[in-house]
Amino acid sequence: xxxxxxxxxxxxxxxxxxxxxxxxxxxxxxxxxxxxxxxxxxxxxxxxxxxxxxxxxxxxxxxxxxxxxxxxxxxxxxxxxxxxxxxxxxxxxxxxxxxxxxxxxxxxxxxxxxxxxxxxxxxxxxxxxxxxxxxxxxxxxxxxxxxxxxxxxxxxxxxxxxxxxxxxxxxxxxxxxxxxxxxxxxxxxxxxxxxxxxxxxxxxxxxxxxxxxxxxxxxxxxxxxxxxxxxxxxxxxxxxxxxxxxxxxxxxxxxxxxxxxxxxxxxxxxxxxxxxxxxxxx
Length: 282
What we know:
By secondary structure, the chain is α/β, with parallel strands linked by helices. The chain folds into two domains: 5-105, Glucose-6-phosphate isomerase like protein, domain 1 (Rossmann fold); 126-264, Rossmann fold (3-Layer(aba) Sandwich), CATH 3.40.50. The protein has ten helices and eight strands. The strands form two sheets. The protein has a five-stranded parallel sheet with strand order 5-4-6-7-8, with helices on both faces. Strand 1, helix 1 and strand 2 form a beta-alpha-beta unit. The longest helix has 22 residues, at 243-264.
């Protein structure tokens, strides 16, 4: 039986807000979704890097990431800018609905402090490079995170695949026993994203599972606990911050890690094979 998708009702109506995210502002699937949302009467908001692009014209309102021309197909700085804007947007909504105190919001908006922490992450570039070179011959990677850091694991795995041509899989650490753990052996690097938050004790248990199977363990954390030093083959410690800002800083570490693996393999990090900067057809 042929199913007419046009008659299927969506959950979106005139009480909905649809946020469209696109670096180029020309991605076909994103534009189709915006049109659908507009037809349903929803408010559409675009987060985009290109003024005058289709996304900026078709949405009701929006925010430009203003991160400059994105040369690399892998869109590293665009992605980091996008998650930062989503973070700020969430704070704005929390403020407007009185869900957070003014002092709490002010602490999140400590721009000088955040920039200082970002710079300290970038100062670890040579350490990240040394670790990356150690693993450049690996054929598979597993990236693991819990909660907010599962999407960070996905981003880390994606960047590695895109520019180094190494197979990598991002997975929720809580679910690793449902498949990925079967792949773990002494030759497989496992990247764990480990903030010192409510997920900490549980992800330690996940790391111990991998350790018992002889997997190589790379940890990105804001904790200086000795237990992590004992478990990790390689440890990257970033400054303590709130768990939202941790996401941004951990993302930068993973982007640098992928970059240096690709560079060590003498690959073109800006123009990876087979990839398109903007997918303009469905």
